[in-house]
Specification:
two-stranded parallel ribbon, about 5% strand, disordered N terminus
């Protein structure tokens, strides 16, 4: 690095992002990859318990969630009354994400065109069902289903931020501009990814 060069610092998308990524990497990356990042591998029981959890409430009882929750900054854990449930949802869903995806966002990975079918990996109906989720349990269940449909490949930080934003919108009282709502942002990314994929296939 020369005297005029400065290291590029990427600002986290949300509070607790750094701790979350290290937690997820500890469960998913190989020992060689973790050694390069100076991260200790997580016990295999963490992911096993999380994957079996069928509701956010069940996630709260797992060792993997406890490790994540206690590893978060105190300010994140005390942020809002629904923070623990939101992070439990996040932990349970991320236990099914095996690899980072090359898509720009979580919703874009759902809308990506499958070359074998020339259709989005997640159908519009399934995507709309996610958008229509009204309870934490329904939201959790539908996210699980969609992660399976993309073979566990998506953008971890994008998915995590979307989950946290969903809880803020559904449990909080803040009024957002329509274009700032998570459902609108996800819809834009989903349909843009699908349109872009179809356009490339026509070239």
């Amino acid at each position: 690095m020369t005297a005029t060069e400065q290291p590029v610092t990427v600002k986290p998308s949300f509070a607790g992002e750094v701790a979350l990524m290290r937690w997820w990497q500890a469960m998913m990356l190989s020992e060689q990859e973790l050694a390069a990042l100076n991260i200790r591998p997580a016990p295999t029981v963490y992911r096993a318990e999380l994957k079996r959890a069928e509701t956010p409430e069940a996630v709260l009882m797992t060792q993997g969630f406890r490790a994540l929750w206690l590893g978060l900054p105190e300010s994140v854990r005390e942020r809002k009354p629904w923070s623990m449930l939101a992070w439990a949802t996040l932990a349970g869903v991320l236990s099914h994400v095996r690899q980072q995806d090359g898509s720009q966002s979580f919703a874009a990975s759902l809308g990506k065109i499958d070359p074998d079918t020339d259709k989005p990996k997640v159908s519009e109906l399934r995507f709309q069902q996610l958008q229509g989720a009204r309870t934490a349990e329904e939201f959790y269940r539908r996210l699980h289903r969609l992660i399976k449909q993309v073979s566990g490949h998506t953008r971890v930080v994008s998915l995590a931020k979307g989950i946290l934003d969903w809880f803020d919108e559904h449990y909080g009282q803040a009024t957002l501009r329509p274009d700032k709502k998570i459902a609108v942002r996800w819809a834009m990314d989903y349909y843009q990814a699908a349109e872009s994929g179809l356009a490339k296939n026509k070239d």
